[in-house]
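Q: How would the structure tokens look for this protein?
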Amino acid sequence: MAISKKLLNPGERLILSTRQHPKALFVPILALVVLLAIGVAAEANLDDDGFQQVLGYIVWVLVILGIAWFSVRPFLVWATTVHAFTDRRLITRWGIVTRRGHDIPLARVSDISIEINLIDRPFGCGSLLIADASANQPARLNDIPHVEAAQRQLNELLHELHQGGGRRDGRDEGV
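A: Here is the predicted structure in token form.
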């Protein structure tokens, strides 16, 4: 899902739009498999007499609730979360029922760093940490695909932004 064009201001250019790497769905898929295995095992080991049949229904209700919470909900959050960089700001939107968002003007960004752990390396993803002048903690965007390329692209964008604010020959205009 790309960022909606209605979120862009007139003249604003979309540079990068992404969501988390599908690697973020591995744990919810594993939870789905484990919960279904529990339900099937309970079905196979319980008899069809009164109490055990009720116990089987209870197990399946718990399995369905577990699947909804541990598999379906994380998938919906993943599907509705998007991170976008324009030539002016970072836009983050997420939420299933209630949409939430956070914008950081690029002029306030002071540092863009990455974090790639051992599990992220084979998938080519990682965390993008964006520090701005007002926040105590950097904004953390987890499981960004091609995180090193995204960092390079954003650093280039910041360089262009800062170059455009002053003279290119290194002198201040007031001197």
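The helical segments are 26-45, 50-80, 147-165.

The radius of gyration is 23 Å.

Upvote if useful.
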